Amino acid sequence: MRDCDVSDSQEAVLKAGVKSEMAYQMQKTMKMIALDVEYAIVNNDTAVAGTSVVAGKFGGVPYFNTVNVLDGEAHAGEDALTEELLNDAIQLAWEKGGTPDICVVSGANKRIISGFTGNADRQRSADATKIKQVVDVYESDFGMVNTVLHRLQPDTRVDLLQTEYWKLAYLIPFKTYDKPKTSLVNGKVVTGQLTLECRSKEANSCIVIASE
After folding, report:
1. Rounded to two decimals, what is the model's pTM?
2. What is the pLDDT of residues 172-204, one digit of tens each?
3. Helix (H), strand (E), coil (C) string for the chain
4. Class of the domain covering 66-165+200-208
């Protein structure tokens, strides 16, 4: 739930580029809700049943992706992402019947993957002074995996997901309601309930690597 309040004076005053202060604040409110949901999907490693005094919290990818877990240090003696770890994690899911199609990584780990020589796509420009090296699709022995760069993904975790088994499920779609008017203030509140569904934990895998 998110809300916003705007006074009659704020709504009446003309501001450069803003025709309606309420519309502007509602736009910001909806963006904040989207960021809240995005953060929960990427980072929530626990789920909390809501009560009359405690807000509920749905489990994100780390809450569900716990079956095929590779600890970099314990598995291969590595405290950073390597091509061997990535392949081993893909194979781990494949052996359980899964076919991961995306690899969610932080900026630091995306740069590491782009440096893998086996999949590096190097292009020399026409003036022969620039080299482009990037890996957006990693081709493993067990299928193609799209690398997805995400700002909220921690450097200590890489998630390999088969997207067809993940879904956002809405219990109550988000709606906007007017708050009771108080004095010269108008308010609106946006409420809704959703959760993340994982229909097959075995189809996914993750790599846990040590932080610096």
Report:
1. 0.83
2. 999 999 999 888 899 999 999 999 999 999 999
3. CEEEEEEHHHHHCCECCECCHHHHHHHHHHHHHHHHHHHHHHHCCCCECCCCCCCCECCCHHHHCCCCEEEHHHHHCCCCCCHHHHHHHHHHHHHCCCCCCEEEECHHHHHHHHCCCCCCEEEECCCCCCEEEECCEEEECCEEEEEEECCCCCCCEEEEECHHHEEEEEEEEEEEEECCCECCEEEEEEEEEEEEEECCHHHCEEEECCCC
4. alpha beta
